[in-house]
Design a protein that fits this description.
The complex is a heterodimer of chains A (100) and B (166).
Chain A: H1 4-24, H2 28-53, H3 57-87
Helix pairs in contact in A: 1-2, 2-3
Chain B: H1 3-24, H2 28-48, H3 52-76, H4 89-112, H5 129-136, H6 141-162
Helix pairs in contact in B: 1-2, 2-3
Classes of the chains: A mainly alpha (100), B mainly alpha (166).
């Protein structure tokens, strides 16, 4: 059997990579994908804890996270389409209406 | 090393490789394909943990629905290669150390708390689909019903946002 720690460390690595992608990417779609990556990392930790504690509650939480992520993807991609139509660019540096 | 451990490291390496590739690729469609690799590897890890239902949902909802949506939007917007803008100094000298520090802090917390975690359950039968459905329709029935409402609102929001104004 694999120690729970291994899963948690993998989850931490994936979350860190997600943060890195979020900070570094310039394309608005790729930044959105980085958020999905972070959600996936959290899901992995949830399932690992659920297995370690011998309860299924964690897996129910994962189900809810997946549902919320799907809804978020639908709305977020709608916003991205709107932004791309208005600014004619997918580069986040060009979306600077709030910048002084 | 046991066979299970070998499979774990194989899938973990695949997931990390996909995540790194997501960062390094310049074209969004390549990033999307890398993300699909991560999701499939994670589904394999869920199977390894004995969470078959979550693995199936991961493949169908994430690998299927969400990623198809992503690829569809990338093609709809005809997204090309990422523009190379002059990198802000803040991202280079602040972003990398902070992201690494965040990963380090989380890893340290996990390493420190390893003694408090109970050993994993002997068999994977405890997290059967039956158990999840029982919980979902008894203890978590109220949030479960709320998610249907959330999806309805998300559908309406997506339609309102993406429709062409006239």
């Amino acid at each position: 059997m694999i120690p729970t720690n291994y899963y948690l460390i993998l989850s931490a690595i994936l979350f860190g990579l997600g943060v890195l992608a979020f900070v570094f990417k310039r394309n608005i779609i790729t930044i959105f994908m980085a958020i999905e990556l972070m959600l996936n990392a959290v899901n992995l930790a949830f399932v690992a804890f659920s297995q370690a504690l011998g309860k299924s509650d964690g897996e129910v939480f994962v189900l809810f996270v997946i549902v919320v992520a799907a809804a978020e993807a639908a709305v977020g991609l709608g916003i991205i389409i709107l932004t791309a139509r208005n600014r004619r660019s997918l580069n986040v540096e060009r979306v600077d209406l709030l910048k002084l | 090393m046991s066979g299970v451990l070998v499979i774990f490291f194989l899938l973990a390496a695949l997931a990390v490789l996909g995540a790194v590739s997501l960062i390094l690729q310049r074209h969004p469609i390549h990033s999307a394909l890398s993300l699909i690799l991560v999701m499939v590897a994670l589904a394999g890890l869920y199977l390894l943990m004995g969470a078959e239902f979550i693995a199936a949902v991961q493949i169908i909802v994430y690998g299927g629905a969400v990623m198809v949506l992503f690829v569809f939007v990338i093609m709809l917007l005809n997204a090309g290669e990422e523009e190379r803008t002059n990198f802000s100094k803040l991202a280079t000298f602040g972003g990398i150390p902070l992201a690494l520090a965040l990963g380090g802090v989380i890893a340290a917390a996990i390493a420190r708390s390893s003694g408090h975690l109970p050993p994993p359950a002997a068999s994977g039968v405890m997290s059967s689909t039956k158990e999840i459905s029982k919980l979902l329709f008894s203890e978590f029935v109220y949030p479960f019903e709320l998610t249907s409402f959330l999806i309805l609102v998300a559908i309406l929001g997506a339609i309102v946002l993406a429709q062409r104004e006239n």
